[in-house]
Design goal:
Ubiquitin-like (UB roll), 5-stranded mixed beta sheet, globular
């Protein structure tokens, strides 16, 4: 494992939860989730290790765990658990099990449900930032409502399982999304099943069971609540309303007392009262600043699913308010921070507000963004987030900062990140062209450096003493045209036929020496040594999911899913359905497979190429505007 990364991610200096840390009768507690969604709390004593946990799970689950692995994000836990934070959610994966399309879903037994029975507080915080004091109070209020018998309401829209939980007054207080009820997850209540937790999901660059982490990450990255993301935390929550293998536990009598609560790991987001969403309202009344700040966040997190249905609209009323003023609330960030560059989807890209230049306050906000600091913060708050996602965050934030400094507006930045679909395949975006060229140059420089070192080894001692070492020459000057319409043949795509990733490929190398990075060469590489870049064991499939339609990139609104929400019977455990519903697309740029040296050189070359890309963009925009001014009245 990457030792320094683990020391930062799992440090005992992390602010702990006093009640759980000082729990009598145990050293610490972990929540272990099987690949089928079953959640168990495991109490550890000092000296317990991974093998101890596996033995306890084998007894509780009544199936062998010798060939399973305990993982936390990228990290496969070997034996020692002393560095793991209290109440961390771990995933138990079947390392060597390969299921065919005819293999049935492994269902929890009655003893499993007994292990999951709520024995205390129905909601326990797993990830709750320091600034979430109000959310802590909200969680306590919802927990009181559960004890009083106030039942949540399932959300019928969307592809995944979601529930409106109420407060003591019976008002909607939070929306809860269990990670094992996501689209294609084992316990999806709407028939979209066929994947285990940790496998590629609705988008191949976002794994099943990990969208909730991204919901929390989006809130954490919304500094000063600039984009107005609702407070979001990660919880372990228990209630009979949840589904197991597509059957609601509330419909199943398990004892004389009636129903039984089932525990889930889920995102818990404050419910925001609103009047409608952006798809039901014209965009003319949306404030420019709100559109800009949501767009800034979407670019930073590389949002692949910003459609009108996940922009809530609330009318502004009261003293001092006049006209048709509105407030925007962005939600549903589970398909952001992909593990490789995808085709993003920005609903706002053609809105007039996006073409208005940034204000001075917005420019200052962007200038103050620190992608390295943000990545370190996410490692600390969300140790289960994958390093590949953090690389996408760093790259996107650098691109945003440099593009803003070059004078580009929000719409232009979004267009440079978006692919164009021509014929039957995607063309790389302008951002991807820059990344492809930067990687080529970084690889060439690294190869030439290796060749230089090899030649030095053949020199005699006399030559070493009498001659000065020659400095490594920079690669020859190059002219790189950022015209994505005509440059397809100049830059070849990455191989699209890589094999599907194996679950045991996520192990990270433990040699701390491999974390060393090259000497900083610019303002961003100054902190590059902080990155945990030992990702040689991480492999991603190059075929990332093409969007489900030519319109909004992910079908997630109520309008598109009502017809599917009630057809549970024939779709449950239909193992072929998941892959059948996922059209493939390509990944032109992979970031996870770069070693630390290559990653550092890549960022250096990336920034060197950006000025030319921005000049090319400005020239093309100017030419297009000049063409439009000529008029079309004489064309037939």
């Amino acid at each position: 494992m990457a030792v320094s990364a683990l020391d930062r991610a799992f440090s005992s200096e992390y602010p702990t939860k006093s009640r759980s840390e000082t729990r009598v009768g145990g050293w610490k507690r972990l929540f272990v989730q099987t690949h089928t969604g079953c959640v168990l709390a495991v109490q550890l004593d000092r000296g317990d290790n991974v093998h101890t946990v596996k033995r306890k799970l084998q007894v509780a689950l009544n199936f062998p765990t010798e060939e399973s692995s305990l993982t936390l994000g990228d990290h496969v836990l070997k034996n020692d658990l002393s560095a793991i934070r209290n109440d961390s959610p771990l995933l138990l994966t079947k390392t060597f099990m390969h299921r065919s399309s005819s293999t049935p879903c492994m269902s929890p037994t009655a003893s499993d449900l007994q292990q999951q029975r709520d024995r205390g507080c129905p909601i326990e915080l797993l990830v709750c930032p320091r600034r979430c004091s109000r959310t802590r109070q909200l969680v306590r209020d919802v927990a009181r409502a559960i004890r009083k018998g106030v039942d949540p309401i399932p959300v019928n829209s969307g592809l995944g399982g979601a529930y409106y939980f109420k407060n003591s007054k019976g008002e909607n207080a939070a929306i809860v999304k269990p990670n094992d009820e996501e689209p294609f997850a084992p316990n999806n209540p709407k028939g979209f099943v066929g994947k285990s937790l940790g496998q590629p999901g609705l988008k191949r660059s976002v794994r099943v069971g990990e969208t909730g982490f991204r919901e929390v990450a989006a809130y954490l990255l919304d500094h000063d609540q600039s984009a107005n993301v609702p407070p979001t935390v990660l919880v372990k929550i228990s209630h009979p309303v949840f589904h197991i293998n597509g059957v609601s536990c509330a419909n199943k009598n398990v004892a004389e007392g009636g129903t039984q609560a089932v525990s889930k790991i889920a995102s818990f987001q404050q419910f925001i009262p609103h009047d409608f969403d952006a798809s039901d309202h014209g965009t003319s009344s949306f404030p420019v600043s709100a559109v800009h700040r949501i767009g800034i966040l979407d670019i930073r997190i590389f949002n692949t699913d910003r459609h009108a249905g996940n922009l809530l609209v609330r009318k502004q009323t009261g003293a001092g308010k006049f006209g048709n003023q509105t407030e925007l609330i962005p939600i549903d960030h589970g398909l952001s921070l992909p593990e490789c560059l995808e085709d993003p989807y920005f609903e706002w890209i053609h809105w007039p507000q996006a073409s208005i230049p940034f204000s001075e306050d917005e420019i200052e906000y962007i200038e103050n963004l620190d992608p390295i600091k943000d990545a370190d913060m996410l490692r600390m708050e969300l140790p289960m987030i994958r390093e590949a996602c953090l690389r996408v965050l760093i790259l996107s934030t650098i691109f945003l900062k440099e593009a803003t400094a070059a004078g580009l507006c929000l719409a232009e930045i979004g267009e440079m990140m978006s692919r164009e679909f021509t014929g039957t395949e995607d063309q790389p975006s302008e951002l991807e062209f820059v990344c492809m060229e930067a990687r080529r140059l970084a690889t060439e420089q690294e190869d030439s450096s290796t060749e230089h070192d090899s030649c030095d080894e053949d020199l005699t001692q006399f030559e070493l003493d009498s001659e000065d070492h020659e400095m490594l020459k920079e690669p020859a000057g190059h002219q790189f045209e950022f015209n994505r319409r005509n440059s397809r043949n100049q830059l070849s795509k990455l191989d699209e036929a890589d094999e599907e990733e194996e679950e045991d490929d996520i192990e990270v190398e433990s040699d701390a020496g491999k974390l060393a990075c090259p000497k900083p060469v610019n303002k961003w590489l100054a902190n590059i040594s902080k990155l945990s870049t030992s990702l040689k064991g991480v492999s991603l499939t190059d075929k990332t999911q093409r969007q489900l339609s030519a319109g909004p990139k992910v079908v997630d609104s109520a309008k598109t899913s009502k017809s599917n929400s009630n057809d549970n019977g024939s779709q449950l455990c239909n193992w072929g359905s998941a892959n059948d519903m996922l059209p493939t697309s390509v990944s032109f740029v992979k970031l996870a497979d770069m070693g630390p040296e290559t990653w550092g050189l890549f960022l250096e070359k990336f920034q060197e190429l950006l000025p030319e890309a921005f000049r090319s963009r400005k020239c093309s925009v100017t030419a297009q505007r000049a063409k439009q001014r000529l008029g079309t009245s004489c064309q037939f």
